[in-house]
Amino acid sequence: MFTNVKADLSRLSNSGKATPRMLIAGLLSQGFQAILVYRFFNWMHRKRLPGQPFRFFFERFIEITCGISIPAGCQIGKGFRIQHFGGIIFHPSVKIGDNFTCYHQVTIGDIGGQGKAAALGNNVMLGAGAKVIGEITIGDNVIVGANAVVTKDVPEDMVVVGNPARILPNSKYQ
After folding, report:
1. N- to C-terminal Cα distance for the chain?
2. What is the pLDDT along the chain (174 residues), one digit of tens a residue?
3. Are 34 and 106 within 8 A, CB to CB?
4. Is 138 strand, coil or helix?
5. Three-class SS of residue 58?
6. Which of 10, 45, 128, 152 could crosslink 103 through cysteines, CB 3.0-4.6 Å?
């Protein structure tokens, strides 16, 4: 758990290093507060330690104060960063790789209460208002643009834009 928190914290600095100063800045960030609550209760979930009713109250407190819902059952790799908080909703079955960046108003969910949610690779960025719906796979090094609605698999090294989503090559990796 602490290795993941350190990696999450290092994503807040330009130098890429977790310092005591960054910890203070992180604790003031609502996105990082939500990540800390998620990391703690995810650790308890994986260790099969009882967390209720405390988990319920902490998760609801974060939802109310920050507008972020990340259930303990999500699997999120190290280096998780919430760039702007508010309106972020993850399905409990979400699987996300390392160095994931999320902007505000992002939803990763299932199809109307049916099935599971997406699996995202490493170095994925979801822009403001992006929606990833259904049990799909998004490859490594993918950028999903603002307000894109993704309902189909996306190969690695791509950029996804629009509604419905169009998949374009990411010139950074071509």
Report:
1. 35
2. 888 888 887 877 666 666 666 666 667 778 888 888 999 999 999 999 988 888 889 999 999 988 999 999 999 999 999 988 889 999 999 999 999 999 999 999 999 878 899 999 999 999 999 999 999 999 999 999 999 999 999 999 999 999 988 998 887 665
3. no
4. strand
5. helix
6. 128
Amino acid in position 57: F
Q: How many CA atoms are closer than 13 Å to the CA of 101, on its beta-carbon side?
A: 15
Active site residue 104: yes
Residue found under tokens 């996300």:
96
Domain boundaries, the chain: 2-169
Identified catalytic residue from 45, 84, 91, 104: 104
Pick the CATH number of 2-169 from 2.160.10.10, 2.30.40.10, 1.10.10.10, 3.40.50.2300: 2.160.10.10
DSSP string, 75-87: EE-SS-EESS-SS
Cβ pair 19, 13 in contact under 8 A: yes
Q: Match 């330009």 to its residue by tokens.
A: 14
